[in-house]
Design goal:
8-stranded mixed barrel, binds calcium ion, alpha/beta, about 280 residues, binds ligand C2E
Length: about 280
C-alpha cells in the first residue's frame, strides 16, 4: 500500500465531492431563481374513482425547467429545498397555483379537488395553518377543495405540534391524506391520533402485488384496516391493468398511476378533464 495510492484515492474523492458540491450550488441557484420568478410549474395527475372511472380530484406535482426548457423532477430539488428552507416559499407557491386551478374549475361550475404535497419541514412552521387559510381565502375557494398529503415521517417528527397544526387545518375544512403509507414505522392505531381522512398505499407495495403473494397480502391488510377506520383509500403507482383490477377488487376507492394517466401540465389537464368542450 503505497503513499501515492492514498493520494490518488484522495484526489479522486475530492474531485467527485467538488463535482457534487458544484451541482448542488447550481441547483440551489436555479431553484432560488425559479421561486423568485414564480416559474415553477404544477403538473396534475388525476385520481380515478374505481367504481365509475370519474375524475373529481388530482395530485399536484411540482416541476422546474432548466435553461433549455428541460423538465427537472422534484426528487432533484425538494430535498435541497428542505435543507435550505426554500421549501416554505416553494410550498406556498404550489398551494397558491393549486388553489387558482380549483378557482378556474369553479368558474365553469365544476367542483374539483386538488391534493398538495406538504414536506415535513413545512409542518414545523407554527404559522402553517394560518398561511394555508389565507391562501385558500384569497383564491375564494372552499377549503374542502384542498387536500394536504403528509408522510408518516413528518407526523412522527414532533407529535404534539404536528397534531395541533393538523387539527387546525382539519377545522378549516381541509382534508388530510397520509402519503406513502407503509414505508414508515408507525402503526395505524398511533395514526388515529391525527385527523386523517385518506390513506395512500405506497407504490412499492402496488408494483409487486400481482407477482408476489406477500405484497398482495400486505395491500389486503392495509385496505382492511383503513376501511375499518373509515378512511378513503387511494392506491398510487398503478402501472398495469392487473394492478388496477386487483386494487378495485380489494375495495380501494381511488387510483392513480401511469396505467390511467401520467401527470400533465396544468393547462393540458384543464383542457382534458375540466373544459372538454374547448379544442
Ligand atoms: P409522491 O408524493 O409519492 O408522488 C408520486 C410520484 O409518483 C410522482 O413523482 C408521480 O409522477 C409518480 N407516479 C405517478 N404514477 C406513477 C406510476 O404509475 N408509476 C411510477 N413509477 N411513478 C408514478 P414526481 O412527480 O417525480 O414526485 C416525486 C416526489 O416529489 C413526490 O412523491 C413528492 O414526495 C415530491 N413532491 C412532488 N411535488 C411536490 C411539492 O409540490 N411539494 C413537496 N413538498 N413535495 C413534492
Ligand atoms: Ca404525494
Ligand atoms: Ca406517494
Ligand atoms: Ca412516493
Amino acid at each position: 500500500r503505497s503513499k501515492s495510492k492514498g493520494k490518488d484515492t484522495f484526489s479522486f474523492f475530492s474531485k467527485d465531492l467538488q463535482h457534487a458540491m458544484h451541482h448542488r450550488v447550481e441547483m440551489e441557484v436555479k431553484l432560488r431563481n425559479a421561486i423568485e420568478n414564480d416559474s415553477l410549474a404544477i403538473y396534475l395527475q388525476p385520481k380515478y374513482n374505481f367504481d365509475d372511472s370519474a375524475v373529481l380530484s388530482a395530485e399536484s406535482l411540482v416541476r422546474m425547467f432548466d435553461e433549455n426548457g428541460k423538465v427537472i423532477g422534484p426528487d432533484e430539488f425538494i430535498p435541497l429545498a428542505e435543507e435550505t428552507g426554500l421549501i416554505h416559499q416553494l410550498g406556498k407557491q404550489v398551494l397558491q397555483k393549486s388553489c387558482e386551478f380549483v378557482a378556474r374549475c369553479n368558474e365553469l361550475g365544476q367542483d374539483f379537488k386538488v391534493a398538495v404535497n406538504v414536506a415535513a419541514k413545512q409542518l414545523s412552521n407554527p404559522g402553517f395553518a394560518k398561511e394555508v387559510a389565507e391562501i385558500i381565502n384569497e383564491a375564494g375557494i372552499a377549503a374542502s377543495s384542498i387536500e394536504l398529503e403528509v408522510t408518516e415521517s413528518a407526523l412522527m417528527h414532533d407529535f404534539e405540534q404536528t397534531r395541533d397544526i393538523l387539527n387546525d387545518l382539519a377545522s378549516l375544512g381541509v382534508t388530510i391524506a397520509l402519503d406513502d403509507f407503509g414505508t414508515g414505522y408507525s402503526s395505524l392505531s398511533y395514526l388515529r391520533q391525527f385527523p386523517l381522512n385518506v390513506l395512500k398505499i405506497d407504490r412499492s407495495f402496488v408494483i409487486d402485488m400481482d407477482k408476489e403473494q406477500q405484497a398482495h397480502d400486505i395491500v389486503t391488510a392495509i385496505v382492511h384496516l383503513a376501511l375499518s377506520l373509515e378512511l378513503t383509500i387511494v392506491a398510487e403507482g398503478i402501472e398495469t391493468q392487473s394492478h388496477f383490477a386487483a386494487l378495485k377488487a380489494l375495495g380501494c376507492h381511488l387510483g392513480q398511476g401511469y396505467f390511467m394517466c401520467r401527470p400533465m401540465a396544468m393547462a393540458d389537464f384543464f383542457t382534458k378533464f375540466i373544459d372538454d368542450c374547448q379544442v
